[in-house]
Amino acid sequence: MFNWNGREDRPALLTEEGVWSYERLTKEAGGIAAHVGRRCLVFLLAENAPEAIAGYVGFLSHDIVPVMVDAALDAELLAGLVARYRPSFVW
């Protein structure tokens, strides 16, 4: 899905700790997706962090269906969503 050929060493994300290259983003994304089966539903508890972006990229790149949910969502509301939609993983 993501074709970053020729850009592997270029900056992909600027973080407080430094810069993630496209190569690092791809590696992190693949590592996250490796723990999840294809075509399953994942609730991605997202916040403004490189790990959330890596998870999203990894899920999309490996035919995993991500639903981005605000990480600050009320716990009771999140529990209701999990009960209703039964994601394979909450990450």
Quick summary:
With 91 residues, the chain is an alpha/beta fold. It is 38% helix and 23% strand. It has three helices and five strands; from the N terminus they run E-E-H-E-H-E-H-E.
Question: What are the SSEs and their pairings?
Answer:
Layout: E1 11-14, E2 19-21, H1 22-33, E3 41-46, H2 50-61, E4 65-70, H3 75-85, E5 89-90
Helix pairs in contact: 1-2
What does this protein look like?
The chain has 91 residues and is an alpha/beta fold. The chain has three helices and five strands, in the order E-E-H-E-H-E-H-E. The longest helix has 12 residues.
* Major beta sheet summary: 3 strands, parallel
Number of strands: 5
First-last Cα distance: 21 Å
Measured by DSSP, the beta-strand proportion falls in: 15-25%
Give the rounded overall mean pLDDT.
Answer: 93
Class by SSE composition: alpha/beta
- Unreliable residue stretches: none
What is the helix content? 25-40%
Shape: flat
Instruction: Trace the largest sheet across and list its strands.
Output: 4-3-5
Order of helices and strands: EEHEHEHE
Number of helices: 3
CA radius of gyration: 14 Å
Keywords:
flat; 38% helix; alpha/beta; 91 residues; 3-stranded parallel sheet
